[in-house]
Amino acid sequence: MNNTSWTQLWLDYEKKRGKVSLDKDNIAVLIDGFTENNRIIKSIKNELLKAFKGLYGKEILFAEKESSIDESTYRIAITKSENMASEGYLIDAEDKGIVINASDENGALYGVFHVIRELMRGTKLREIKAECKPSNPLRMMNHWDNMDGSIERGYSGRSFFFENDNFYINDRTRDYARMMASTGINGIVINNVNVKDAATDLITDRYFFRVAELSELFADYGIKLYLSLNFASPIELGGLKVCDPLDEEVIKWWDEKFAEVYKNVPLLGGFLVKADSEGRPGPFTYGRNQADGANMLGKAIAPYGGIIIWRCFVYNCTQDWRDRKTDRARAGYDYFKGLDGEFLDNVILQIKNGPMDFQIREPVSPLIGGLTKTNQMLEVQIAQEYTGHQIDLCYLMPMFKEVLDFKTYCSKDKDTVADVVSGRTFGNKLAGMAAVINTGDDTNWTGNYLAAANLYGFGRLAYNTELSSEEIAREWVQMTFNLIEDETDKLVSMLLNSRGIYEKYTSPLGIGWMVTPHDHYGPSVDGYEYSRWGTYHRADHLGIGVDRTDKGTDYAHQYYPENAESYNDPDKCPEELLLFFHHIAYDRKLGDGRTLIQYIYDSHFEGEAEAEELYETWKGMEAHVEPEVFASVCHRFEMQIANAKEWRDQVNSYFYRKSGIPDEKGREIF
C-alpha cells in the first residue's frame, strides 16, 4: 500500500479540501475554564489547527478572552461546565458561534471531534448541535501484537508498536492515538494476551522508559495505556518455583513488582490477563479458582488506582468430544458463575460476545447478565479472524448491535446486554466494551480499505450504543470518501448487507466453524482444530447440529428461563441459531417451507451470487474513487468471490454426500 492520503483514514482533512464549505471567513477559538497548558487541551488546539488548515486552508485564532474577538469573527467556545456527565459534551449554536460545553478535558476533546466530523460531512458550523455522553465508562481496543513485530490474527501488515523486540513511538503512533480518540476510545492494550518471550519484560526496566513514553502520548488524547500480563511472571522474571496466587512469596513478588511498575509508569491504566486457556498459565495449575488469581493481582495493584481485566475465555481445548455431554460453550459459565460476587472492585471480567470464539453467528454469552454481583465488560473482535480476514467485506456493526440489544432477562428493566455492560443494570463503575484489533503497518491500516469501517464503527458504537449500524456506516463513508449522494447510499448498503452475505456462503443457522484449522480462512467442513475425536458440527447421514438442550449438553439452561425455554425447543428456537442448539434432520422443514438441506444448498448459492453483486456495485463507483483504492478493493472482491465459490462448493458437496438428498433445483453440486 502506498496511498499516503489513507494514512489518516477518516481524519484526512486535506482530502475534503474544496468538498466542504465554511460559512464564515474568520474563526476564533475561546477556551474558558480549562487550563491552557493541559495536555489534552493542547491536543484540542492542534487538532483544530489541523482541521481548519486541511479542510479550508485557513488559520484560526486562539483568543484569550471574548472581548478580543472581532464582531465579524465566528467563534468556537470550549467551556467547562461542572454539571455535565463525565466525558460528555453539549454543543449549541449562538449568534456569535457555537459553544462546546464539557465537564472534563476528555468531553471537550470528543466535542471538538464531533464538530470536525460534522464539518467533514458537509454540515454548516451554525447547524451543528449535539448532546452526548458515553454509554460505557471503558471503551477499549485490545491489540494482539507480538514484540517480534508479528500480529496474531494480523491481516494488515506488521506491528507499528514493536519490531525485533524493539519498541517504536513515532508519528504513526500519534496518528493512531488521534484516530482512536476521534471515535471515543479511552483505553488501549498494546500487546498480545498470549504473553511470551520479550513481552514478559514489558514490566521490567528493559522497557519502562518506552512504556512510560507511550503512556504519555496516549494521555495527550485522553487514553489510558494497558498491558497484557504473563501470569507466570514470578517464575519467568522472579525465579520463583511457582506462580500460585495464594503463595506468600508470589504475593510479595507481585506487590513489589507493581510498586516498581507504577514508580516508573505512573499513568498506566492496568493489565489484561488471559489465564488457564490454550496453554496459558493460570490459577488452575495450583487447584485455585479464577477469583483467586484475579484478586491476588487486583489487591496488589489497588494502591496505584490500577485495574485488572480478567478474560473469561477459559476452556479445556483437549476435551473429549466423544462424550456428548462435553461442550466448550458451557465452559465460561461453569467456571465463573459460581464465583459471582467474589471478585474485588478493581477487577473486571471481560466476556466474549458469544460462548465460543467470534463466529459469524453465536448466541450471546449467558455470563453477560448471568453475573449480577461482578464487574463485567463485553469483548468483540473487529479483526476479522473468522469473518473474512479483511479480504471478504464484512461490516460487523449489525452483529454488535444485535448483541447489545439482546434481552438477557436478568432484571425487570435495563436487561439488555448494552444495559449490563454499561453498568446501568447493576450499578457497576467498572464496565464497558473492548474490541480485539489488528491494525498494522499497511499504509491504510486495515489491509482492505473498506475494513476501516469496523475500526471506526466500534469506537463510535462503544461511545454511543444508541447509534444505528446505518448511522455509523454513513458517517464513515461521508468522512472517508468524496462520493455523490447516490454512491454514498450504495456503499452504505453494501456495508449493511455484507455480514448477512458472508454468513450465507459460510456457516448459516448458527453452526459456526467449518473453517480451515488454525488459519481460519476458507472452508474445511470437518476442520475444527480441537475436534480430534469428532466433528464440531456433529453431522451424520440423518442431520446436523449440536444438541445443547436438556437432552444433550444442557447449555441452553445456562440462560434465564425466558431464553432457555426458547433455545431448548427446536420449534421456538430462532432459526438463525437452530443448529447451534439442536441436531436437526435434513428433511425437517423450516419456517419458509424449505427443508434444512435445501436451505443449506440455497443459502450457499445465494451468498456467492450476492458477493458477486457487491463487486458489481463497487465497480460502478470507479469514477468517484481514487484509482489505487478502487483497484485494491477490486482485488479484495475478486478474492472474496473465489472464497465464496469454494465455500459454496465444498459445503454443498459435503452435505449432498452426507445426506444423499439432491438439490431440488437441479443445480450442479461438485
Describe this structure in words.
The structure is a single chain. An eight-stranded parallel barrel has the order 7-10-11-12-13-14-15-16. It has a six-stranded mixed β-sheet with strand order 2-1-3-5-4-6, with helices on one face. A two-stranded antiparallel ribbon has the order 8-9. The relative contact order is 0.09. The chain folds into three domains: 4-131, Chitobiase, domain 2, CATH 3.30.379.10; 138-480, Glycosidases (TIM Barrel, Alpha-Beta Barrel); 504-546 and 583-659, Alpha-glucuronidase, C-terminal domain (Alpha-d-glucuronidase, C-terminal Domain, Alpha-Beta Complex). Helices cover 34% and strands 12% of the residues. Helix 1 (39-56) runs parallel beside helix 2 (105-120). It is globular. Strand 14 (347-352), helix 9 (367-370) and strand 15 (376-381) form a beta-alpha-beta unit. The chain contains 18 helices and 18 strands. The mean pLDDT is 95. It has 670 residues and is of the alpha/beta class. The chain has helices at residues 39-56, 105-120, 171-183, 208-219, 233-236, 248-264, 290-301, 331-336, 367-370, 397-405, 417-422, 452-463, 469-480, 485-505, 561-568, 578-581, 596-619, 627-659; strands spanning 27-32, 61-63, 74-80, 89-94, 97-102, 130-132, 138-143, 162-163, 166-167, 187-189, 224-229, 270-273, 307-311, 347-352, 376-381, 432-437, 543-544, 584-585.
